[in-house]
């Protein structure tokens, strides 16, 4: 056993929740962002502007989402170059075989293939054949074997959340908004979670609300300490920057979380806000305005996942735009600031508690 442990250490194989649940998952979201998400945005712009060149570019970017995710995962796992490059084929196969649950299939299969590839990497004199051969054979075999049921399970679970939100928009609006918003601030990837579950429709709208409540909430309530730099880095970047402060004083998390519990059901029950763009947008919030872009692209050209659940293109009304602005920007800012002021007066939040680490 000790010999095997030393072998894993030498191969930089760390079997842990952090390595697979945080590092790999977060990298997967970046790979998805740099392919499917940006491709969807470019393609939608091309469609609206009737520019075929942009449509083609977007389509090419969207087509390589599987390889992009797998290579990103391999990079996070510190895979050797031969393993890393071989994961492109694994990602393509896993994403294609996984269907609607492609991202989850890629996550699981790419991790296994990468670790197997790392085990044999540089162990033989014919490494150029063995390493890519093992990585691709194991990865593609797993894709053919387990990706379809993984995709079916992920799609079914996402459908359960979607249907539950339609049946109980108030309570599910609260649950989805709060949970996805919390995931966004934690050092895990809410974007990847939403993509894995294929979260669209009303549930996707509630997820957008929760993420915006965290990002805009922390940006506004900490403006006194962090000024404009903090407003931009948290409001358009990530509320994850507050995690060190949350560890020191968890009470600072109360205002944006309460705000998400309010904006979630307002999104589902009052405005019927649906996020029918690429599911990854549901977990992006105001990061680069990707959540709002997802809602907009979903209005004009729903994603395949949304279409499969009955979505249709619409012409947004003034009421739709009002809901988007209130849910994503105005209400999170006002509610979080008010709750924060109350907690400051009670002493639960003290001067400097929200100052971002330098």
Account of the 3D structure:
With about 350 residues, the protein is mainly alpha-helical. It is about 75% helix and about 0% strand. Helix 2 runs antiparallel to helix 3 (about 50-65), helix 5 (about 80-100) packs parallel to helix 7 and helix 6 (about 100-120) packs across helix 9. The longest helix has about 40 residues, at about 125-165. The protein starts with a helix and ends in a 12-residue tail after the last helix. The model has no long low-confidence stretch (mean pLDDT about 90).
Query: What is the total tally of β strands?
Result: 0
Can you give the mean pLDDT?
91
Share of residues in strands: under 5%
Taken from the alpha-carbon principal axes, the silhouette is: globular
* N-end to C-end Cα span: 43 Å
Count, helices:
16
Low-confidence segments, given as residue ranges, are: none
């Amino acid at each position: 056993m000790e010999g095997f442990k030393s072998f894993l250490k030498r191969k930089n194989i760390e079997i842990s929740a952090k390595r697979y649940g945080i590092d790999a998952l977060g990298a997967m979201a970046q790979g998805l962002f740099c392919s499917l998400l940006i491709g969807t945005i470019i393609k939608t712009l091309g469609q609206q502007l009737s520019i075929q060149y942009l449509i083609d570019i977007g389509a090419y970017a969207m087509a390589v989402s599987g390889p992009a995710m797998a290579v990103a995962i391999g990079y996070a796992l510190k895979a050797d170059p031969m393993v890393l490059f071989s994961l492109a084929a694994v990602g393509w196969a896993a994403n294609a075989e996984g269907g609607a649950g492609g991202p989850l299939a890629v996550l699981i299969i790419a991790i296994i293939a990468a670790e197997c590839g790392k085990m044999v990497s540089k162990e033989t004199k014919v490494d150029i054949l063995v390493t890519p051969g093992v990585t691709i054979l194991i990865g593609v075999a797993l894709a053919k074997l387990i990706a379809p049921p993984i995709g079916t399970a992920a799609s079914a679970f996402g459908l359960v959340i979607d249907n539950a939100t339609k049946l109980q928009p108030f309570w599910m609006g609260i649950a989805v908004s709060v949970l996805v918003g919390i995931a966004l601030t934690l050092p895990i990837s809410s974007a990847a979670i939403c993509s894995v579950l294929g979260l669209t429709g009303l549930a996707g709208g509630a997820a957008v609300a929760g993420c915006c409540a965290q990002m805009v909430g922390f940006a506004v309530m900490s403006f006194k300490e962090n000024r404009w730099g903090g407003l931009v880095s948290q409001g358009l970047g990530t509320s994850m920057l507050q995690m060190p402060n949350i560890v020191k004083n968890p009470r600072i998390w109360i205002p944006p979380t309460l705000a998400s519990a309010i904006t979630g059901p307002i999104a589902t029950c009052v405005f019927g806000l649906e996020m029918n763009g690429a599911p990854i947008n549901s977990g992006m919030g105001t990061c680069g305005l990707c959540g709002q872009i997802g809602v907009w692209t979903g209005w004009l050209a729903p994603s395949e996942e949304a279409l499969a659940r009955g979505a249709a293109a619409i012409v947004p009304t003034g009421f739709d735009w009002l809901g988007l602005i209130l849910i994503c920007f105005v209400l999170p800012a006002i509610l979080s600031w008010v709750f924060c002021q109350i907690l400051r007066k009670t002493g639960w939040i003290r001067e400097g508690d929200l100052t971002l680490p330098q």
